[in-house]
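Researcher: Please translate sequence to structure tokens.
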Amino acid sequence: MSTVGTSYNTLADIMAATTPEGSVERDIADRTARTNELLQYLPWRRGNKTDGNQVVQRVKLPTVGYIKYNKAPTKSKGGRIQIEDRVGVMKNFSDVDVELANAEVDPAGYRREEDMCFMEAYNQQFADDAIYGTEAGSPEKFNGLAVKYAAPNTTRNNYGYYMINGGGSGSDNTSIWLVSLGMDGVHGLYGKNGVAGITMKDHGKVWGPDADGNDMQWYRSEIRWEVGIQVRRPGAAVRICNIDKSNLTGQSSAADLSVLIQRAIGLLEPGQGKPVFLCNRTTKTWLRIQASKETTLGLHDVQDTFGKPIPAIDGIPVLQHDALTNAEATIAGTFQSDI
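Model: Translation complete:
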């Protein structure tokens, strides 16, 4: 089946991106753009394996005590486990018909604009997989945060211990995440032999098949990104789950975001990085609405490292992450009751 017009650019695509003067439009109003501010702040680490990073976690301390005369000390030892987080590789080719591009006043500009489309698509894909990515059924991917913090647990230093129930039900829930960004907390990953960030390689003119399998010439850009995410210690992130979107927007039995957020701050283990909140547009809006009605939420704007004003709670920035869906299923189980 021919894929012209879906996989390949047509003259109509070029015309749609052309100014009245005949050049490629640079100021494009992008209706596909999303706000995923985590990508601006997430630190990245080179893994110690070609396909990820292996970390040793201490999970048990030795038993200690006082000696008794004529009795040997009790023997004991600590316990360790190895965890490994994998990376996935996104790679695509941005192909433009040589004849079609050369018919444009600015062929190079048109190619750059096409390449930028892929970069936005990569950003959105990683933003989604950083939360919901799973190797189950998709071994080429990596596990996101929601895979680790998927089921509540009442034992400290298990991932599920750092989960708070927002009280929602049904399948229209969302989550707020409190994560410590840093090398000892939550960070991005790339492989031992990889490079950080999106790489682009201009292959120039190449021969390749068209939609019907016939050879023709294309301008080709190779776009590649090696990505993963790692939580070095379970206490480096807290998930407030089961926040019912319809209850929130309908202001009926709505989650008390002030209480939930203060509980999350109290639950986060200290000293593992720079803490930030992650929430989607809906939750961020209702944070502001609830803050306008109750001053205990303590929401106010601060300047981030780039000098941009950004809302913060108790000095912790609130980042908008549109990849967080409002369609999470209810997470059941026994949540910790320490905080």
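Researcher: Any highlights?
Model: The two ends are 58 Å apart (CA to CA).
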